[in-house]
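Budget justification note: compute hours in this period were largely spent on complex prediction jobs such as the one shown. Inputs:
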Amino acid sequence: MTAIVEEILAGEQRESGAADLMLQTAEWAAAAFAGFDRSRVEKIARAAVEAAHSHAGELAEVAVRETGFGVVEHKKLKNELTSRALLDHYANEDFCSARVLPDIKMVELPRPAGIVLALTPSTNPVCSVFYKVVLALITRNAIIVSPHPMARTCSVRAARLMAEAAEAAGAPSGVIQVVENPNLPLIGHVMRSPRVGVILATGGTPMVRAAYSSGNPAIGVGPGNAPVLVDATADVAQAARRIVASKSFDNSVLCTNESVVLAVETIADQLLQSLRGAGAHVARPEEVAGLRELLFGRGSFNVEVLGKSAAEIGGRIGLRLPPATKIIVAEIDRTGIDEPLSKEKLCPVLGFLRVHDAQAGIARARALIRQSGAGHSAAIHSRDTRTILAYGAAVKALRVVVNAPCSQGAAGYGQDPPRSARTSGRNT
Amino acid sequence: MTEPQQSPEKRDFLARSKEFWNPGKTQSWQDMGVDLVIDRREGYLLWDMDGRRLIDLHLNGGTYNIGHRHPELVEVLNRGTQRFDMGNHHFPSQARTALAERLAKICGGDLHYTMYASGGAEAIDIALKTARHATKRRKIVSIINAYHGHTGLAVAAGADRFKKIFLSDQPDDFVHVPFNDPGAMEDALKGGDVAALIMETIPATYGFPMPLPGYLNEVKELCERYGALYIADEVQTGLMRCGEMWGYQRYGITPDMVVTGKGISGGMYPIACVVVREPYAGWLTEDGFAHMSTMGGAELGCLVAMKTLEILERPTVKPMVNYISETFRNGLHEIMGLYPDFFVGIRQCGVVMGLEFDFPEGAKPVMKHLYGNGVWAIFSTLDPRVLQFKPGVLMTADLCQEVLERVERSVGLARAECLAPGRRTRRAA
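Corresponding output:
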């Protein structure tokens, strides 16, 4: 074909037209799927998660290679947890059958939403696809996955893998589809389609805002900025280990990772020492300035350091850190717009702020989240129930993780019990 | 049926249609209770000039397979006119070559060259001429009650219905055999003097009788044995209507030539094509000027056809055709269960469907009542017991449900009319 012919054929409606056909096929698939009983749905979901689980490691490698973000072994773990483990978690729940409630003279009918539009991020690409597909399948919805363009290859493969396995197990054709060449105008078009039942949007603020203003029901997961309060009653050594484990997990690409430690003055030095012991490098003041410039010198967060290791980030400001260094702690003296290091940092750099007491810490946590990340996550390390409850009530977060690593705890799996106090939802 | 009142404008228009256009045809539709004058159209919907909305299940033989005025086709046609027109048929053309390349890729194997026409009948003529050139034989075999269009060779290959009136029946070179009868086919071919067998994969105007299992394969084998070319008229069965790009793929055969028309134009710009296997395309090399057509392969038509194929090749279309076929299969069988003494059969391959009624010309009252109930579908000219039921390949689930509701009501009304006391004597024995 000559360039002239190709140019004429490449109309503005080519992409949106193809997307409309995807939606229409999904509509057919959803209508068929809505009539499936629980055992058929379970068989399909099981086939899909087994296919996903068996490729967890391989797709983790593809994701890291493609995006440059994160750590293969951590991504593999997340991929496993969002496939087989997630389905196991819901194994005893029935989202398909009617329930008769004679006492209140009601019948509950689980009704699918129809078409789920899943926007998935570049930072946690494969596990987000797995997670959303599993939820769609067990609730008998069709799903269209729209991956972040930076993570296109691994996300498309993840979705296709599950689609093939699900269809082989009897799922209606087209129940899992993926937008192979996503871009903003195209996704905007799909988000606004009256055919979409619900949007599950994980991504940056503009994407989540676009989902909310699309006219369709949307559940958005935008940026976080999790404060972590360590008070005087905390097991400081344990707290330090958990914070480092969380902040270094997948090089901090999870939006649930700790952003700023709020350390009560009386244990602050002890906590810094323990953080060092757990693998952190505590930056000197001039290094903090270097980090500030590296991470936020251009105004917004520098994506070149997104998901990179502590040693690599150190190297960029002329620090020669041992490769085993897990995170870098940057002590700051304020939070707010005049201290960029108090914003969300999707890399293993952790802010550290001294507060006078727990009450001041709670106030500071509220301020931090007011700046950005409202409604997301927060963590606390304390043995004082009243402080924990006061923190949980005051800080505007969907979930407050108590005495556990925030990244893992927010997702319901920590290295140490107890589990997070979760109001609802689940993040990746 | 409550007959909607015609507006004065429509009455006046129909009179002028009779006066200046085609009196016989205009009057026949009025006699059959179908006073349709199509005005606005969009997707699978039509609006009569009096504003009545109809769901189009005729699609003009599949011309509107992907819907009326498909937005992407409108767009490509608009873009095309910014640079091209029909073109000059004497010269190599970027658009014609691009479509030929695309068709070669889609058809595969050595189905390689594309020859262009402005309509299906002309394309059939080209195919038959090509076969005669390749085999140096004259005879053409086709099916009794076949329909291949109205030009010279095409009409000769078809049923008497359309040629006697014009004194155009040429019995010597055109042999007609019964459908689904391999013995008769062999008798026609075994003289070794047949240039080509031409047949629709499923004969549309004959009411879509389904080929018996193995029949088409046997016919193809016979063609090979006796040196005749197999020409698949895919005008109505191609373009995903049988669930694959070409209907013959459903039957596991590969023809020597494929004729496509109607739907490939998207109803937006006339074009029809013949794709021929390389060994039989000799005249294109020997004398490339031997067949010409000023409007055949018009460049704007090529662009629209490219876009039509692009849309049909999207991976979402195939599952959609399956969903639509299944929905109608199930829904129509339920309706058949309601009226088993009247609605007696469903012929189906994908969205190519014929509904059989146990009453002489029974499809005509069904057509009339469907029309009265907001659905436009046409009877089969060559077997008027059968209604051609042709949903588009991109129909939505909601529209399919609406069609089924309207069909149920209409078939009931038609049955009541046909089987009313005093009319039973007209029933077929």
